[in-house]
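User: what does the whole thing look like in 3D?
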Amino acid sequence: MSLPLAALGTLAWRNLWRNHRRTLIMLAAIAIGVWAMIFMAALMRGMTDQMVRNGLQTLPGELQLHQRDYRRDPSVVNSMEPPAGELLQVLQSAPVAGWAGRVRVPAVISSERGSRSVTLLGIDPEAEQALGSLPEDLFEGRGLEGKGDRGLVIGASLARRLETALGKRVVIMSQDPDNNVAERGARVVGIYRGRLQGDEDRFVYAGRAAVQELLGIGQQISEIAVSGNDYRRVDEWYPRIAAAAGSGLETLTWTELDPFLGSMLAVQDGFTLVFMVVVFLALSFGLVNTLVMAIFERVREIGLMQALGMRPGLILGQIMLESLFLLCLGLVAGNLLAVLTIAPLASGIDISSVAQGMEMMGMSATLYPALHVQDMLMSTAVVIILGLLASLAPAWRASRLDPVAALTRD
Amino acid sequence: MSDIACRELCKTFHQGGETITALDHVSLDIEEGSFVCLFGPSGSGKTTLLNALGGLDTPDSGAITVGGQRLDGLSRGELADLRLHNIGFVFQAYNLITVLTARENVEFIMQVQGVPAGERRALATRVLEEVGLAGLEGRRPGELSGGQQQRVAVARAIATSPALVLADEPTANLDSRSAAQLMDLFVTLNKERGVTFVISTHDARVMGYARRLIGMRDGLIVSDEQQQPHAMDV
Amino acid sequence: MNVTWVLAWRNLWRHRRRTWLTVAAMVFSNILLIFLVSLQLGSYQMMIDGSLAAFTGHIQIQHRDYHEQQHMYQDVPAVVDLATRVRALPGVEAASARAEAFALASSAERSFGILLTGVQPRFEPAVSTFPGKLREGRYLRDGDEQAIVIGAVLAQNLKVAVGDELTFLGSGRDGSFAAGVATVIGIIDSGLEEVDRSMAQVPLGWFQQVFAMGDAGHAVVVRAPSVDQVQATASALRSQPAPTGELVVLDWETLVPGLRQAIQSDMTSAWFTYGVLVVLVAFGVLNTQLMSVLERTREFGVMLALGMSPGRLARLVGIETLLLAGLGLGLGLVGGGLLSWYLSVAGFIYPGVEEMMERFMLGGRIYPEVSAVSMLIGPAAVFVGAMLAALYPALRLFRLRPVAAMQVA
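Assistant: Here's the predicted 3D structure for the full assembly of 1053 residues, as structure tokens:
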């Protein structure tokens, strides 16, 4: 039996507007629900996006290579040679957007007024640029000028705690491969403000060659950080690099390097879906109610249609179609509303009042809601699928009405 | 094909602790092309019989054959198809789908049958003209008088060329003039197209049109006679 | 019972299914709200308890600049005596003295920066959960010297085990060179990688010797009987005569400002969710009540014609809504209460977010907090929302004209 969709469509559409007040109220409810779904998803996505990005800038990179034992024993002993041959070739070809070899060692930094334990990063500033891993906000002094730079760039908070200042000398202490204390005086050439205050206390930047010299490790480095500029697609190019790196090196993606960060994405998707379903459930009572009422009002007409020879399936289809129209209209309105309310917030929502709390979650003080087509589609899917499921019960009852009883109802 | 045969139809209802016998072992044959009137007081079982003939209501026992097709054992869907293609219904009131115009009401069933749009339109225009509603095709039921509404219902019933039209008190809500017009229309269709009509009524004006008059009381057929039809006085 | 109420109750059941669906929407939202609010409050409670119990404590007495600058010389003089006196005060469950220094710890093979804490072995377990998370060896005892307890990750990084020696280098209170050698007697596995990477504890007395602290320390850590009583205890402490003018009493909100803010930011998104739920339910009630008014236009017309005032009719609709909302409230409270009560006993697990919970010091299970606030705030909002939603249908009655109304089919 072919479904006479045109006939049912006209009927469903006109029936929808029979009681326009009720339909409009329900439409408003669906629109608000859909708006809330998308708005919440955009906030969540903005939040996770930022957390992941900040995390990746701190890591840095979406992929890191280390000497096989480095992660278990992050000592200078477990350093590796700079990339060469095939690995170098892979690193220099697309889709790799940037890579940097860095020395990363635990160290103690001391001024005459105090000492703190920090992570000393020996970097090549040019290479780091591509990773976006350098502090963006240089608050005093200058940045490092090449890998041979002998100065230090430290965080503003660390400077405060050490009671040191730009131009002053501090002592940096670490360990060479033979476990001797390697120690050197260095001048603070720059003071940065970190994205997160924790970073300011933790990371001290120095020229890579200068650190290599301090530690006596020649050209060796601790890690290679690689970025392809899209953290969602690392899995596509990860195997090529892992293969080129060979078994002496450990190649890990960001989800493995920072499981917290990795779990964020899954948690966010899960939470968004749960939120959408919950909002929909709250809506579904109204939806079912509307349909039940709409059917109640035209029981007689449904009896008539049965008498005219409409199969139960067609009656069911007609009501489902009516529900579908209602849902679609609500979706259009809700999506529109979401786009209109999220667009003006694109420049960010200031949440600095809770900045330190957000920092615990790896976020900064401005939240950028991110409207993704994917979330709009997800809300559409939730509303349509669950909406039709919820409509099934009243529609089924309508199609099963006893025609004689229906016709004689007044 | 529209020969109707009923054998030993029984149907009871329970209402307020009482058992009402709507059909009490009713047996009846109606030949194709008949123009039959069922008459009797309210509760005599006319409507129940009519509904049973159209497969809307299922008797407790007994067998109905319409055009050689046994109705018992058919599913709801199959019964619906039977009505869709072979049987037209005209009720006392509320015959039309309120959200559709007169034309759409007529076209609707054809649309469900799958008649192509062009053919459908032409046919709808023709039958609406035939029932005297040319020019009112675009009105919705609320904008038509009771008589006009009934005529749209007839137009719809005959547009699909059913072999059988079942009408349940079609004139009950009409003034004499409209009632006469409607009955004239039935007679014309019966004569020119050979459509079988079974009409239930307790309106004496209507009974005059019938060639066969079947009287019912308490679920029993109490009289069954042929007569010379005569139009009512308006 | 007043006849209006009886009428309202009967009217409610004219459309059984519609009424139940509307009530069901309210019950659903109420249960959900009770569940979410009590879960939320419960997890905040656990977050606060967990974070503070780990190490920070509820209150600390410090030099007034130490929290900001953390210089060795910003000390608390005679810290052990102060701790002893504080311990005896009412509203103080436990108190322990601490001193802290950053140092470079070296084993035979490796060196790492650590945060070395001098603790009172006898009192530390009462203000911190770390001593209880010992994985190997034993915790410090009074009288121990040259003994150190370190975090598990640090032990791994330094490649040391219980019994091995560690050297640590740092600066003393006066800026002088400070060095010590200690034997690892215990390894703590707190489960927090950040903590286990740098934590090291030694007896306070020995710490004071090595770092030239004299009898000074950096903090007296105080535990109040519960988080709710922190403010009371803090004010009690503040009212005590201070040994020097430089000491301050800091509560946990100052010590860990991120915690309160994390809770606030979480609350903001939670309120959004609650608001949406309440609004959606209100729309449902609006729809139901508007329908019920519209379908009775004729009946209301008759009542107006009989001399009933529109105000009385509006009151009738109001009472109907009140009964409807009351039904939703009652059933919602029962359902939500049972659910929360069950979960507050059995606990609730968020699947798949262990990493996130660990960061906020939450164990695997959350126990919702069942209190008057968590039970009533959501359902009350739904109730108010429902009553507000009935305003429009009720006000429409004042526009009703009897003759026109009676002609409505």
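In plain terms: Residues 3-52+259-407 of chain C form one domain. The two ends of chain C are 33 Å apart (CA to CA).
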